[in-house]
Amino acid sequence: MKRKWRLSLEEKITIACLIVAAAGVVLQIISGHPYPEIPPVFFILLIPAGLISFAPWRSTYQRRCGRYFFISRTFS
């Protein structure tokens, strides 16, 4: 039995904002702003959007580990 994963409103908004930000970078490239051949901003914006939308069960664990690492390094 396959289980469908439903995205919360916050996850949908986050995905939409990441995609809009990537579209903004495309507009900047078209208008002539200097970027490298392969802009790393696409990876920075679109990989998290893909993780949130297609792998919510995995990204939840990764987010928890990332938060723990950040908090432990920041406040120690």
Write down the domain tally: 1
How many distinct beta strands? Answer: 0
The largest β sheet comes out as: none
Mean pLDDT: 77
Shape: extended
Q: What's the number of helices?
A: 3
- The low-confidence runs, each spanning 5 or more residues with pLDDT under 50, are none
Looking at how many chains there are and whether they match, the oligomeric state comes to single chain
Q: End-to-end span in angstroms?
A: 45 Å
Helix content: over 70%
Rg for CA atoms: 16 Å
| N-to-C series of helices and strands | HHH
Overall structural class, as computed from helix and strand content, comes to mainly alpha
Beta-strand residue percentage: under 5%
Layout of helices and strands:
Blueprint lengths: L8 H23 L8 H15 L1 H19 L2
Helix pairs in contact: 1-2, 2-3
